[in-house]
Design a protein that fits this description.
Elements (H helix, E strand, L loop, with lengths): L1 E2 L6 E5 L2 E4 H20 L3 H4 L5 H26 L2 H6 L14 H19 L3 H8 L3 H15 L13 E2 L7 E2 L2 H21 L7 H17 L18 H18 L7
Parallel strand pairs: 1-4
Antiparallel strand pairs: 2-3, 4-5
Helix pairs in contact: 1-3, 1-7, 3-5, 5-6, 7-8, 8-9, 9-10
């Protein structure tokens, strides 16, 4: 049986100032976005559009705002609407935790739409550029979840079960690592190679939505559901229900024959 190392959340102590692991994982996620993005904009379908490193930096800035605002509002609306309706000022207390990936995704959609209008191109052209850069960033985020000892898994008897002592003494799935490997590294590799070949407009975005939706849906069977929600209809978690529309829309983008620019 494995024991969670119970890492110090502060990676580097500098007197009274500390650099947190979570901050470092976000920094690494942003760095890989820029590095891989510079490779993407040199590919033929984007090179002809004259994309520059400055465009990537603007896109990253807009995306970060979308993730933060969308992630927080998504958590408020999807997970605890009654509480925040009664305590609206708590919406701004982001340091207490509470972010939703699916809300963050919607926020990024808004940011991509804004950027597409600014760049005088289409939403799907921008999303096809960005999609292969996302999974590896998610992998760094899940690493941060593991280091912080949050989003642990359900009790299990598998040989690699892990005890999270600050939760209880039950062996549990290290679900953060499942998500790191599935929706992060594996999806990132598959999507990167898929996107290297010319695809119809929207297919790369569709591949990401379907891939993430499936990996997240499966990982949720091992992840402990939020205590204040539990399991919902059909024994599925909120994360699983929110992944189903992603999969459906992704399939539409993958299979549609209309090549017009939305």
């Amino acid at each position: 049986m494995l024991i969670h190392p119970n890492f110090d959340p502060v990676a580097i102590h500098l007197g009274s100032f500390g650099i947190h692991w979570y901050g470092l994982t976000y920094l690494m996620a942003f760095a890989q976005f820029i590095l891989l993005g510079r490779i993407r904009i040199r590919m033929a379908q984007f090179k002809v559009l004259g994309w520059t490193n400055k465009d990537l930096e603007d896109l990253l800035f807009a995306g970060v705002l979308g993730v933060i605002l969308g992630g927080r509002l998504g958590y408020v609306c999807f997970y605890m609407p009654a509480f925040y309706l009664s305590h609206p000022l708590n919406i701004f207390k982001v340091w207490e935790g509470g972010m939703s990936f699916h809300g963050g995704l919607l926020g990024v959609f808004v940011a991509l739409y804004w950027f597409a209008r600014k760049r005088k191109t289409t939403f799907l052209m921008v999303s096809d550029l960005v999609a292969p850069l996302v999974p590896f960033g998610l992998a760094f985020g899940r690493l941060g979840n593991f280091i912080n000892g949050e989003l642990w898994g359900r009790p299990t008897t598998v040989p690699w079960a892990m005890v999270f002592p600050y939760v209880d003494n039950l062996p549990r799935h290290p679900s953060q690592l499942y998500q790191l490997g599935g929706e992060g590294i594996l999806l990132g590799i598959l999507l990167w190679f898929y996107a290297r070949q010319p695809r119809r407009l929207g297919q790369v975005s569709g591949f990401f939505l379907v891939g993430y939706g499936i990996f997240r849906f499966l990982a949720e069977f091992a992840r402990e559901p939020d205590a204040f929600l539990g399991l919902l209809g059909l024994g599925l978690s909120m994360g699983q229900w929110l992944s189903l529309p992603m999969i459906a829309f992704g399939l539409y983008l993958l299979l549609r024959q209309n090549n017009s620019n939305p």
